Predict the structure.
Amino acid sequence: MANPLTVITSLGGGKSHEAKGVVKRDWVPTGRIDFATNLNGNGDADRPSEFKMLVEERRIVESIAGNENLEIQWRLATLKEAKSVVTQYHKYLTENSLIRSVEPRVAWIATVLADLFGSYTNLSSRTLDFGPTVRLLLS
């Protein structure tokens, strides 16, 4: 099977991306995403690999005959788009109790220590920093 990213980038077949008419609506994202990777012939779906996020876009071009043509393209996602997808995914996991950001006992310890020493920061790196005097390492 051919690499999907190679197939997608070669679909143009030498066509230019210039509009053949008047652009009535420029490229806008449709909200659909996909991922592509190099399979390297191993076929092992459980093996870690690099992925590229693709975003679908569309635009409407009016031809010289007056017909409206819908053009669709897939392009690599921007960092902002990738962050948006990850943020929404984490929100979904949290709202559906599929992941917990902090264990209840760790949250309780953090609350007690925050009352004693002030607010805490740096929770995501598995450490609780309560100013320069107290640092709690989480295992």
